[in-house]
Design goal:
With 273 residues, this protein is mostly helical. Helices cover 85% and strands 0% of the residues. The protein has seven helices and no strands. The protein is elongated.
Length: 273
């Protein structure tokens, strides 16, 4: 082989082999591409994690909101039950105070509830005055009803067809009037019940011993009869107050427990500092 042929061969071979600079550039480009892919993968992973975390947080918020709504509904029912128990207490206490003359004299004179005479005497007198007015209206209705019944029971025998027809018409009219009177009296009874319940809401807290001294003494330190021979009356009132106090206390403890549950759910949703 001549030197000229060798040079041509080497030139052609050089054309076939990659240039060192080009090789370095291709390696750098490949490395950059790999780095870009790794970075893109990391970004995608971070984005997906953030999205999943946001969805989980959103779901937890929605779940907690639903739970809190349910708990608030339960609290509303318990509060209604608590008010209902206080109203029932008002009916029981009012009946106890008015069914016995000695008790009535004691509360009227302000000597039945030691230390709470004025506070309890005033709402009791208002309730008694209101009940007196309502009862007077009922008595009028009852008197009208009694008159109708007496007339119907003492009617003279019929002698003619015209009298029979007249009596049938009057009987139908009286029956309608009697039904109306009975309906009105039932509404009055409901009004009386509501007034007694209102009395319970007014005096419940007043009849409950709140300070430590009253708690030690029990109801004896709060309820005091005007007469020395009415210990049984004290027991009846004491039982009425103690039962209502226990029932209301149990309901209020349930309400507090429900409110603590809501506070726990709120704390769970607070961002960490």
């Amino acid at each position: 082989t001549t030197p000229q042929q060798s040079r041509r061969f080497l030139s052609r071979l050089a054309l076939c082999l990659p240039h060192p600079a080009a090789t370095i550039k291709r390696k750098q480009t490949s490395r950059n591409y790999a780095n870009e892919r790794t970075h893109a993968h990391a970004q995608a992973h971070t984005y997906l994690y953030a999205q999943a975390h946001a969805m989980a947080s959103l779901w937890k918020k929605a779940k907690n909101a639903a739970i809190k709504t349910k708990i608030r509904g339960e609290i509303a029912l318990l509060e209604r039950e608590c008010v209902g128990r206080k109203k029932k207490f008002g009916v029981e206490l009012y009946n106890l105070l008015t069914n016995d003359k000695n008790k009535l004299l004691g509360i009227t004179a302000g000597t039945l509830f030691e230390g709470k005479q004025k506070q309890i005497k005033e709402p009791f007198q208002r309730a008694r005055d209101d009940m007196g007015g309502i009862q007077a209206r009922k008595d009028v209705k009852q008197k009208d009803l009694d008159v109708l019944e007496v007339k119907g029971a003492h009617s003279l025998p019929d002698t003619t067809a015209e009298e029979k027809m007249r009596k049938v018409g009057k009987h139908m009219t009286d029956a309608g009037t009697s039904a109306k009177l009975k309906t009105e009296m039932a509404l009055i009874d409901r009004e009386m019940l509501i007034r007694k319940e209102q009395f319970g809401l007014e005096v419940f807290e007043l009849t409950i011993a709140s300070d430590e001294d009253q708690k030690k003494k029990g109801l004896k330190g709060v309820v005091k009869s005007a007469l020395g021979n009415v210990s049984q009356q004290e027991k009846e009132i004491q039982s009425c107050v103690d039962d209502a106090k226990a029932d209301v206390g149990l309901i209020e403890s349930k309400i507090q427990s429900k409110r603590r549950e809501i506070n726990i759910l709120d704390d769970e949703m607070q961002p960490l500092m």
